[in-house]
């Protein structure tokens, strides 16, 4: 659990308009933040007290401690 909040993940957009959507931690799961990335923009983020899940829409490279995903 502690790791979950310190681990960083990296998202690199491969096209314009990639959406990174943060979902709330706890019993009430809802969107709390949507970040739009354009091609070649990179976002580095963590899971936090407020964010337990992330939904990514669009073509992107996603790196986590579990490995890399190429969503093409
Ligand atoms: N205020 C948010 C938080 O502390 C910011 C955030 C962190 C975020 N990680 C995220 C937003 C991942 C979207 C996706 O939880």
UniProtKB/TrEMBL annotation:
Annotated Tryptophan RNA-binding attenuator protein domain residues: 5-71
Signal peptide: none
UniProt-listed GO biological process terms: DNA-templated transcription termination; regulation of DNA-templated transcription
Bilayer-spanning residue ranges: none
Keyword set includes RNA-binding: yes
Keywords: RNA-binding, Transcription, Transcription regulation
GO molecular function: RNA binding
Function comment: Required for transcription attenuation control in the Trp operon. This trans-acting factor seems to recognize a 10 bases nucleotide sequence in the Trp leader transcript causing transcription termination. Binds the leader RNA only in presence of L-tryptophan.
Stated family: Belongs to the MtrB family.
Subunit structure: Oligomer of 11 identical subunits arranged in doughnut-like structure.
Protein's UniProt name: Transcription attenuation protein MtrB
Annotated source species: Lentibacillus populi
Organism classification: Bacteria, Bacillati, Bacillota, Bacilli, Bacillales
């Amino acid at each position: 659990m502690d790791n979950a909040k310190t681990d960083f993940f990296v998202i690199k957009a491969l096209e314009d308009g990639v959406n990174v959507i943060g979902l709330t931690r706890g019993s009430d799961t809802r969107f709390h933040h949507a970040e739009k990335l354009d091609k070649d923009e990179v976002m580095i983020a963590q899971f936090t007290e407020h964010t337990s899940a992330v939904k990514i829409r669009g073509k992107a490279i996603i790196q986590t401690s579990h490995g890399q995903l190429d969503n093409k």
